[in-house]
Protein: Homoserine dehydrogenase
Amino acid sequence: MTTAPFRHPAAPVSGAPLAQPSLDVFVFGTGHVGGALLRQIAGLSRAPVRVVGAATTRGHVYRASGVTPEALAALVAESAPPDLSRLVPALVRHPRPLAVVDATGSLEVSGIYEDLLASGVSVVTPSKLACAGPQARFYRLRDLGASGPAHFGYETTVGAGLPVIRTLQTLTATGDRVRSIRAALSGTLTFLFGEVERGIALSDAVATAVARGYAEPDPRDDLSGEDIVRKALILARAARLHAERAEVRTVGLVSDAVRTASPEDLPDALRAEGQAWSERACAAAARGERVRYVATITADAGRAQIDVRPLAVPAASPFGMLGGTDNLIEITTDRYAASPLRIMGPGAGPDVTAAGVLSELLAIAA
Amino acid sequence: MTTAPFRHPAAPVSGAPLAQPSLDVFVFGTGHVGGALLRQIAGLSRAPVRVVGAATTRGHVYRASGVTPEALAALVAESAPPDLSRLVPALVRHPRPLAVVDATGSLEVSGIYEDLLASGVSVVTPSKLACAGPQARFYRLRDLGASGPAHFGYETTVGAGLPVIRTLQTLTATGDRVRSIRAALSGTLTFLFGEVERGIALSDAVATAVARGYAEPDPRDDLSGEDIVRKALILARAARLHAERAEVRTVGLVSDAVRTASPEDLPDALRAEGQAWSERACAAAARGERVRYVATITADAGRAQIDVRPLAVPAASPFGMLGGTDNLIEITTDRYAASPLRIMGPGAGPDVTAAGVLSELLAIAA
Structure:
């Protein structure tokens, strides 16, 4: 018998007896998101999950009997970097239900999901690498996570802690069909557009975004638009639409000069680019519009037509009103046809992303 | 081992073998929502749920081996109204996992939840009667649905199919704390405000809302505001805040003359009231504002301060832009503090409500 996602997996309100944690967790990556996750697990009053290890590029620890949060960092620091060819077989032999969290951006770690899932180990990840790669690979991971004892959780790949993926899954599972999705999927870009609208130069806005941690340390990762294309692919696939990278139409956010600039040349390249952004923002404002970088996904006989580009939207519309580092996902379906279902809010940040990962772990543990 | 809510409970994409339905369902009420639910279940290609009966005020059928959707209506029509003192014991003895759906507004049916849950039968309901009553009763239902084999699902009591309740549960389960919720919880009122803003008289707008099925057949149920107070209580409780009906502060939407008018006198009473609505809408428009009926829930040391009243909001804000029959729920928490998490969309309608009920059934079945 299983547990509905509609009740609290953790912290029952009644005086239920303290139960043995029902899920063990191994965490790859103890940086922003991984660190926040470990703190959140430690902070739960009656956690149904228990940490049994962690790995970083510098060291790793795995103890089947559990590791206290206090001991974890020291044990990782004392040991050698993990050898995945030895660690994965050990995790697969773990004696109790186990979930592996991938809070890295590592291609190598994303490469072990299939072996883990096939062996009954659940995988929960905010990393987009596996889900946004070839669609056939995503299907294999999803099928492994849907047919055996293991679960594959990728809720936090889009919108961080916002309930986007599971809403799409719920809609389609009940027989609804997604017609289209329009989405602003980058908190960084929402912030940059907002600053440019206020008259700030793009180069200064990028510097602020980096300083505040909104942008990646190398802001070209945000400005290339590749991150948004990946999220759009994942959204389309979560909506049960076929979508391959090569078919996505993109209109670049910045020129090749910015995309290919070396870190030293980036400020100059941004200054040159910034003028065009400011002019575009002014022209839009004069028409009562604002510029947003919008991913549009349209269903076409089971396939997704994906278009990612800067779009002029009415200032007095949900897209036009986006502020801060908010994301907006607007879902139109057969049932939500007259007016879409909209989810809006901060779509990035270690705490909300970690909370999204934790909620997937709690659902597996329940 | 259990199933995460983050994957499809239904329709695996791989060639998984057809499994025996893992949950049987008995439906009270076969009107708008109950009827849509039965159609949706019949429409699923590989439904993990099976209908074993239904009851209305006119008749009922219960067959432990299952009832086809085609036979159901005729069997109900041929039989006598249910005697709950005999039907409930029969349902409790059902040989397989069973969920009872209450798609009625019946106080009598809401009275059987506790016996069902205590006996291991799950309950899923869009009816607000049990959840918005005394808080102690809601706690008992929630605890019964969290500690045994049975589940208590009330997602569709607020916002119909919008993912509101489970979002609040996910936030609080992962250690986040709700600070405040602001919500427009009535599609009918959103529609009426929109019409009055366009210069339509309130009495005409109400007539349109009834004709289109937005309002209850007796529109006084919408205009009294009691429906919104109930939803606000449920939201507060889902956010783990104590909230009792007697503590809710409300500023009425209409005068006692409307609330207590007989159906024949209602049009006259509405005409008298309408002038005040139109004047209020005009005055707000002159200030760049709009009037919305907003429930504000503020956390205060574990208790909810609930305030429900007409509020002037900026026209260029999510509340100001609400159209059609949309609901908006704006959740501010420790983690979503700088900018709230917002969920917006049609918050009523048989199809989206039934889909919400079905998704809870699928999660129980998974």
Observations:
- Residues 23-160+351-365 of chain B form a domain with the Rossmann fold fold (CATH 3.40.50.720).
- The first helix of chain B runs from residue 32 to 43.
- Chain B touches chain A through 79 residues (CB under 8 Å).
